Amino acid sequence: MRSSPTLYLLTVSLVMSACGAIGQNHGPMKPFESSKHDDSTDTVQSQNNGPYTTTVNAPVPAPVPVPAPVPAPLPAPVYIPQPGDSFSRSSATSPIRTLYVIVSGNATCRPAILGTNDVSGLTDNSLFHGFIATMMTPGYVTQQDNVIFACYETLSPQMQVYDVRNRPQMVPINESELEGIVMPQAYVAQRIVIMGHSYGGWKSMKMASSPQMLQYTQAPIQLITVDPISKINCTNPFMPGCRQAPSDFTNVEFSTLHSRTRWLNAVQQPGVVLGSDSMPAAHTNLEFTGVNHFTIVSDPRLWQAIHQFVAM
Fold first, then answer.
1. Looking at the DSSP assignment, which residues form a beta bridge with residue 266?
2. Dmax of the chain from CA atoms?
3. Which residues are registered as beta bridge partners of 291?
4. Residue 233 CB coordination number (10 Å)
5. Burial (CB count <10 Å: 0-12, 13-18, 19+), residue 162
6. Do 162 and 171 contact (CB within 8 A), yes or no?
7. pLDDT classification of 91: cutoffs 50, 70, 90
8. Mean of per-residue pLDDT scores for the chain
9. Which of 293, 285, 275 shows the shortest CA–CA distance to 309?
10. CATH dotted code for 96-311
11. In angstroms, rounded to a whole number, what is the distance separating the alpha carbons of residues 294 and 29?
12. Within 10 A of 55 (CB to CB), how many other CB atoms are there?
């Protein structure tokens, strides 16, 4: 039976229409085409038993640099009173060109003898007298400076202190309070000179190496010790510590004294009953003969050396 021309044309038209739909939706089929990578768009195309699928790898964003925080300025240090401090003072004081701290030894808080020095009301001892005659009377110490005198009572932690600028009279204190008087003034001083004899030399070493001194001032420090004797290792004349340099300091303290100060150590030789010795940490060691532990502070040679050292 022969098909009619009309039926044939209709059949061909339907087949062509179906093929066109397939080509329009899916494109020509390419069997066995492997997966391919398009570098220009960073996409991966893969054949998966059906239409091609596209996976887009989102670019990883570069890390945004975070600026470092700007540290806030440190507050100006203020001296923190230590337990037992009772001396009237303030951490705010007027500027000081040079702060002198003069500390005499055991049993040197004797009543003042009229006419022995030029500082009214100050106790009379050889160390104070020598400093006044060498540094104050000739005018090397001016109104821009200040002097704090301190002396020990007999075999006691009790002291007396005389502050030329702020409290010009002898005031009883405990030795632990001396730093509380010195530190606020050390903070505003351009230079610090600490000098001590005997127990006062030991106390001067302790003060110059103390954490408070390191924390609250960057001013240059000149340390002068005159025959220093340890208050810990010499409590009676028969103890070996009474005839040697103070040894109750740690290596860190000696290192601090050497690096933080300019140190003159003056001793008398030989120290038969009382006496000190040279110390490697000191920058200059002077040994004086013909004097003893008590008369060395009246020796003109000592004061000439001190004057030259302070003037450097």
1. 226, 286
2. 160
3. none
4. 16
5. buried
6. yes
7. very low
8. 78
9. 285
10. 3.40.50.1820
11. 116
12. 8
